[in-house]
Specification:
This protein is an alpha+beta fold and 695 residues long. Helices cover 49% and strands 12% of the residues. It contains 22 helices and 17 strands. The structure holds adenosine-5'-diphosphate and magnesium ion. Magnesium ion binds next to loops.
């Protein structure tokens, strides 16, 4: 049997391979580039490219690609073979130039108006901090994707810029606390990925799943998730076989898949890796989603990453565990033991409090999508209101600091930051309450509003930049301080007072919380269009431009792309519903109605006294519902037609939200009720029961 440790990362051009395959000089130059983000000189690049190619070819690779993450949310790759001619003979070649930069035609990727057609080409640039790897015989080079004007066309570029921003500001703060040995800080992320597995043959019979990734119709099955028997339940053999192969594939690619278990809904599962530096975690999560989908097919399954594949059972999210770590390995959200460590921890904690409060709109926007709108606030995922869970102990500590009172009953002295040691609080009392959108879990924060299909890049770009801004303001103040300790104490105290409204330790699903949140002035942005309205505010433009994460032009382009993709999705969903209702469901319902009517007539022809109440009542009910469904089809048709005439993307999104979605909901209501009474023999699509319980 092959040991995992023997093949883990075998498809990755990682540090150990670099050490083995590169000369000492080349290796050291490359390391300096990776550590300091310097640009690679061409002779080093040539040496690295050549070694990479030899290594890849020895593992069966024939092609290479610049692997990047355009705004479509999925990864893109264009394969080039290593083949070249030398004196009429085919040889395998890969140059430093080809490694560092690629030039894909960018014209078919969403750019939100950034790229005029005359400059259709974009370029990709190697992110040397994320290792190259071999996937399906192709050497993949993780890259960023920009226009020729240098504008970001992808999700990686802004993420890397945000990591730079938080590094700059956190370093200023760390210097004030001493920390002479620290040279850089990076944010870390561990995303917990939820997904559904359904049978492939059944999937292929559902147009809605095929075109939109979610069911647009479907009556409630006799059994749903009410027995709570799936969560952490025994994993079925077919799923187990899939998970086993998934782990192996991920491990070969150096993705540290760690935990797997069944989730709340039937057929729902989760995979979590060991956390990594944010840009690497983002690459790994993209790979994970891609490989999940590919491998599932091999097992005659389909992996659904949609946020809400089924109405009435839980949808899928992606918890984004986040922290900051120094190059010396210190987690800055670890409370520590000494007054000094505690003080530094409290300041970083406050930087997050302030960031999440000041930029709740951006955090909400960063998780906004048509799919995720079905989950947030629906009592299965956090509400659409952003708040922070700190746990009672930590909240009490903050209260003691804010009010200059003693902490707990036993303590007599007032808690002074930087002087006293914080009382210990047990980690396990930190959040087991799963209703909070943003929870402190002992030594990291868990941002729980992300949808399952989302790239983690967007949310982390916002989080990093918002925290960088808090740290910038803190550093500005502390660098000027005459007495560091007093200023620090007052700064922490003031931050708590100003931002404690964002702290909420109670049940986020409770209706009362929404009222309370409103009183506190917190935003409740229920849908994507509601949230997007806040994106281009002066405050947000200032944030991103100041920290050089987005230019104003890039923000306008992102606004366009995000809003447009919301509209496109809803349009596709609406058209799919029309197609299913008109071509499949309503004709089947008519056929069944005919059978009932014929049966009634035949019974009567045998004897007028025979009872036909079943046929008659069912037929009456069906006719009423069919009429409603037919009206629903017409209403949806008209909403879709109106949409074609709306040119302004903001107005279109408002129309999709208020009219198209509304019409879809009404049509669904009538058709789901029909499904409950029409004979199974006539219903044209597999039911929820079959989809959810067949694997
Ligand atoms: P849960 O109780 O939510 O299952 P776990 O302890 O299993 O929590 O962690 C969930 C995820 O958080 C894992 O992917 C883990 O690697 C990640 N994680 C742990 N520590 C950190 C950290 N310092 N920064 C980022 N992610 C982390
Ligand atoms: Mg979690």
């Amino acid at each position: 049997m092959q040991l995992v440790s023997d093949y883990f990362g075998c498809m990755v051009f990682d540090d150990s391979v670099m050490k083995a395959k590169l000369s000492e000089d080349t290796y050291n130059s490359l390391q300096r580039t990776i550590a300091h983000g310097r640009s690679l000189n061409l002779s080093v690049a040539n040496a690295v490219a050549n070694a990479m190619k030899d290594w890849a070819v020895s593992l069966g690779a024939t092609h290479y690609t610049h692997w990047f993450q355009p705004m479509t949310g999925i990864t893109a790759e264009k394969h080039d073979s290593f083949i070249s001619y030398d004196k009429g003979k085919a040889i395998m070649e890969f140059s430093g130039k080809e490694l560092i930069q690629g030039e894909p035609d960018a014209s078919s990727f969403p750019s939100g108006g950034l790229r005029a057609t005359f400059e259709a080409r974009g370029y990709t640039a190697w992110d040397a901090t994320s290792y190259a790897f071999i996937k399906d015989g192709v050497l993949c080079i993780p890259t960023a994707f920009c226009s020729y004007g240098g504008e970001a066309l992808d999700k990686k570029t802004p993420l890397l810029r945000s990591m730079e921003a938080i590094n700059r500001q956190a370093m200023r703060v760390l210097k004030l606390f001493g920390n002479e040995d620290v040279t850089s800080i990076k944010t870390t992320v561990g995303p917990e990925q939820e997904y559904f597995l359904v049978d492939k043959a059944l999937f292929e019979q559902r147009k809605d799943l095929m075109y939109t990734g979610r069911t647009l119709f479907g009556a409630k099955p006799p059994k749903g998730q009410e027995m709570e028997d799936h969560y952490f339940g025994v994993i079925k053999p077919r799923v187990q076989a899939f998970m086993k192969e998934l782990n192996e594939e991920l491990w070969k690619l150096g993705v540290p898949a760690k935990t797997e278990h069944n989730e709340t809904a039937p057929s729902q599962h989760e995979l979590a890796p060991i956390f990594a530096t944010t840009n690497i975690a983002a690459d790994h999560n993209q790979l994970t989603m891609e490989i999940m989908q590919k491998l599932a097919k091999k097992h005659n399954l389909v992996c659904l990453l949609h946020e809400k594949p089924f109405a009435g059972v839980n949808g899928s999210g992606k918890h984004n565990n986040w922290s900051l770590s120094t190059n010396t390995g210190v987690n800055l959200l670890e409370p520590g033991d000494t007054p000094y460590e505690n003080a530094q921890f409290l300041l970083f904690l406050c930087s997050v409090l302030k960031a999440v409060d000041d930029y709740q709109d951006l955090l909400r926007i960063s998780v906004a999508s048509a799919g995720n709108d079905h989950r947030l606030g629906a009592n299965e995922a956090p509400p659409a209101v952003v708040s922070i869970f700190l746990g009672t102990e930590l909240t009490e500590i903050l209260e003691a600091i804010e009010r200059d009172t003693a902490y707990g009953v036993k303590e007599k002295e007032l808690l002074r930051v930087g002087v006293h040691t914080m009382p210990k609080f047990p980690k396990d009392t930190t959040d087991r309450n799963r209703t909070s959108p943003f929870a402190f879990t002992g030594n990291k924060f868990e941002f729980r509003m992300l949808g399952s299909s989302a790239s983690v890049s967007g949310p982390n770009t916002v989080l990093n930049t918002a925290v960088a801004e808090s740290l910038r303001l803190f550093a500005d103040e502390l660098e000027q301080a005459e007495n560091f300790e007093t200023t620090l104490h007052e700064l922490i105290k003031r931050t708590i007072t100003q931002h404690k409204r964002i702290i909420f330790n109670g049940n986020g699903y409770d209706e009362a919380w929404l009222k309370e949140a409103e009183k506190r002035g917190l935003l409740n942005l229920k849908t994507t269009p509601d949230a997007m309205a806040y994106y281009l505010s002066e405050k947000n433009i200032n944030l991103f431009t100041l920290h050089k994460v987005y230019t104003e032009k890039e923000m306008h382009s992102r606004y366009e792309i995000l809003t447009q993709s919301y509209c496109k999705l809803i349009n596709i969903e609406g058209r799919t519903m029309m197609d299913m209702a008109k071509k499949d469901i309503l004709p089947s319902v008519s056929a069944y109605a005919q059978t009932l009517a014929n049966t009634m007539l035949s019974k009567k022809s045998v004897s007028k006294s025979l009872d036909v109440s079943y046929e008659e009542e069912t037929l009456t009910q069906i006719c009423t519902l069919q009429k409603a469904a037919h009206a629903g089809v017409k209403a949806l048709e008209s909403a879709l037609e109106t949409a074609y005439e709306i040119k302004d993307v903001t107005a279109l999104a408002a129309h999709c939200k208020s009219n198209t979605l509304q019409a879809m909901q009404e049509l669904r209501l009538a058709i789901d009720r029909l499904e409950e009474i029409v004979s199974s023999d006539y219903w044209p699509f597999p039911t929820y029961g079959e989809l959810l319980f067949s694997v």
